Input
Amino acid sequence: MATEGKSGEDRYANVHEDTAKKMSQAAMGNVFFDMMAMDHYQIGPHYSSAQGAAVEGKKIMVVLVNKVKGTGSRLHTHGNEQFNYVLKGQFKYRVNEVEGIAGPNQMVYIPANAQHYFVASGEGDGMYLACKDTSDYVSGEAVDGTRTGAYRDPESGK
Output
C-alpha cells in the first residue's frame, strides 16, 4: 500500500509487494476465512478505490471488494485472468472494447492482459467477489502508465 511520508507516484513504489504481504494464505490447517470480518485494506490504491480482503492459495486468489458509489478503477491491465461476481450494487465495466452494467448475481470475465475498469455506478456502494489466478499480483497497472490514484466520478463528489 502507499508509503507514508512520500508524495506523488513515489508513495506507490512498492505497492505490489506491500499488498501481497496483507493477503491471507490458504493452506492445510488454514482453510476457513470470514471475508467480512477480516482486515480490509486498499487493494490497488495506485489506480483503484477497491477496499477489501484477499485470500491466496497456490493457484487461485479470492478477493472481497468494496467500492464507494462513483469510484472504481481507472483503465488498467494485469497478467492474470479474473472473474468479478457482483454481490451488491451496480458496476459500470469495460473489458477491452466491450462496455456494460453488471448487477447482483451477474459476473464479468476479464481475460489476462485485457484493458478494463470496474466502477460502482448504481444507487449506492457496490461489492463483488473477484477470483484471479496467481500468475500475477492482486493489482495491476494503469494503462496510462501513471500511479495517481483511483477513478472518481467528478459528478459524484467522491
User: Anything to note?
Assistant: DSSP finds one helix and 14 strands in the chain. Residues 29 and 89 are 34 Å apart (CA to CA). The chain has one domain: 8-152. The helical segments are 15-20.
